[in-house]
Amino acid sequence: MSKSIFISCVYEDSYRIDSITKWANEKKLGDVIITHETEDKRQQGKEAVKQQIKNKIQGAAVILVLVGQNTHNHEWIEAEVELANSFHKEIICVRIPGTTGAVPTLLSKYRLIIFELEAIKRLISYNVR
């Protein structure tokens, strides 16, 4: 049975999800499916974001947080990470190429890996059993 991987990122970086979804569809990441926020609830506040994605995060085996230029400035990333932590989910932080933005404080204890197929695959394989 496929394991679900939830991808958290700021809206402006959401096009990066396409690469990871392609790798997943080609089975390059193992037997996984990709989920993510599909509806922009930012204007309705942090609790609305949490409600929308609660089931996706709860059902995910691993959470990938894409860290870009402005990830540290967005409260909905905080909302997603808070939910992941409340469900005791494994979190993998992935640096978006060409960016240098800070890692959100909530994620400072996690190792930051490069946005590269083999690096992501290795940590997903380790955390998804």
What would you note in describing this structure?
This protein is α/β, with parallel strands linked by helices. Helix content is 36%, strand content 20%. It has 4 helices and 5 strands; from the N terminus they run βαβαβαββα. The protein has helices spanning 17-25, 46-59, 75-86, 117-127, and strands at residues 3-8, 32-36, 62-67, 90-95, 112-114. The chain has a 5-stranded parallel sheet, sandwiched between helices. Strand 3 (62-67), helix 3 (75-86) and strand 4 form a beta-alpha-beta unit. Helix 2 crosses helix 3 (75-86). It starts with a strand and ends with a helix. 30% of the residues are buried. The mean pLDDT is 88.
Helical content class? 25-40%
What about the largest sheet?
Answer: 5 strands, parallel
Based on helices, strands and strand pairing, what is the structural class?
A: alpha/beta
Order of helices and strands: EHEHEHEEH
Strand segment tally:
5
**How far is the first residue's CA from the last residue's CA?**
11 Å
Rg (CA only)? 13 Å
Strand order of the largest sheet: 2-1-3-4-5
Please count the helical segments.
4
Unreliable residue runs: none
Query: What spatial form do the alpha-carbon principal axes imply?
Result: globular
Look at the structure and give the mean pLDDT: 88
Fraction of residues in β-strands: 15-25%
